[in-house]
Amino acid sequence: MLVSPGRLSHSKGSSGRCDHWSARRAVLGGVTALLLLVLTATPAVGQEDSVVVAAADSAAAADSVGAAVDSAIAVADTLRDSHPQDAPTATGFVFQTPDKKGQLRTRVSIRLNGAYDFNGLQNTDNFDTYLIPVGESSTDEARFYLQATQTRIGFELSRATTGGVVFGRIEADFRGPDNTFRLRHAYGEYAHFLAGQTWSTFGDVEALPVTVDLEGPPSAVTVRTPQVRYSATVNDSMSWAVAIEAPLADITSPDSTAEQAYQGFGDVTARAKLSSDWGHLQMSAVLRTLSAKDSSGQTDFLPGIGAALSGKSQVAERDAFLFQAVGGLAISRFVGSLGGKGLDLVMATLAVFRVSVAGAAVGLAQTALEEAVRHTRTRIQFGRPLARLGPVAQMLADSWTEIEMARLLTYRAAAMAKDDPAATLQHSSMAKLAASEAASKVVDRCVQVMGRFGLIRGSKIEKLYRQARPMRIYEGSSEVLRLGIARELTEIVD
């Protein structure tokens, strides 16, 4: 019997033996082919918890391509924001394509946080100074809590192309309503461009310390926004970026029934960053235009501008000095503990809006009183004008007196609001409260003294009666205004 590679020959008389060896070789070949197929198609767990899918006969060539992809991704990482609480870049499960030009990385970070609070702080994630209970809201009740809503799950995709690496990232946690998913990051990158939701270009998350707070100190710029960003490097140590971000104006409406004002301009943000072995230094700025409707329904455009200086200095191997300073006008939504509180415009406009309502209420009451005086002066009852009757004269006198008191208070509040609206909010509240309440009383008296003539549909006094009632509701209801005024009074009295 002659044996050659891949073939068996036999002579007459040895067929049984040769058939036996042929069967064994066929089975062995089938097992080997099956083993190679399993090794080729089945993911293998390697170092760094990676599952690699690759053809065995192209491993050497794919390794060189994979190294080039890793190098390109590393360059892109230098322009990508990295929060100190984020998972390290090299962690997770990595699935690679056979040519190693593309990969999918998945990450799951299970997080449990808890605390024992001695004084009843409202926020369970951050030390939020804005929410510290004071005055009547102050409490000494202790509270213990545990929660796992900060747990995160994310995916990262990258693919090498002739024009560069295409990168995409999606990350969510369970901070939504009733522990539902909340989107943290969802963006894609190609060449110098980024599009999607991630950290605002105005911020510097790399200058944040590792703290027990969810996303850094309460005064830091830690907001994620939908944006389109262009980033570039000048040299090995200098980079810059500019972006158009979703405005998401943080405005407190002066009237719960006020018409919504849509934002017609995006926020323009920019930054310049200097990096070195000792750390980094960053300067950033934001320019925005906010839209808000006044009490008459007219849209006003108010500018907002801000600047920030931040950085990190590595003073020792394990020690670093971190700093961040931010300031500006109408940029509270970018600041951690102030975002979502409606403070971009509320303190600068609410006082003016309330004074304007007070002025309208005074004018309405004055018009109603003049209409009633004309009627009672010409209407004769019991042989003389109604204005000469005691009860009617008393109502007219009280109305005039209340109108003048409301007018003087409105003038004073308007003068104060012109100089410093934010510091005179309570005086504007008092003027609005006094004027709207006086208008309702005056118009009601006018209808009373005019009798059936005050109830005629379409008459001037009937229209004024309907217009006076809403003034006690919008721009702050009378009940809400009284609570705010009383709270201010208890704080300023020793």
Give a structural overview.
With 494 residues, the chain is of the alpha+beta class. Among the domains are: 3-41; 348-492, Butyryl-CoA Dehydrogenase, subunit A, domain 3. It has seven helices and 20 strands. It has helices spanning 15-41, 59-77, 346-378, 390-419, 425-450, 460-468, 478-492; strands at residues 3-4, 7-8, 44-45, 50-52, 93-96, 102-109, 113-117, 143-147, 152-161, 164-173, 182-190, 193-199, 224-233, 238-245, 267-276, 279-293, 299-314, 320-329, 380-381, 384-385. The strands form four sheets. Strands 3-4-5-6-9-10-11-12-13-14-15-16-17-18 form a 14-stranded mixed sheet, covered by helices on one side. The chain has a two-stranded antiparallel ribbon with strand order 1-2. It has a two-stranded antiparallel sheet with strand order 7-8. A hairpin with an 8-residue loop joins strand 10 (164-173) and strand 11. Helix 4 (390-419) packs antiparallel against helix 5. The radius of gyration is 37 Å and the shape is elongated. Mean pLDDT is 78; it is low at 1-62.
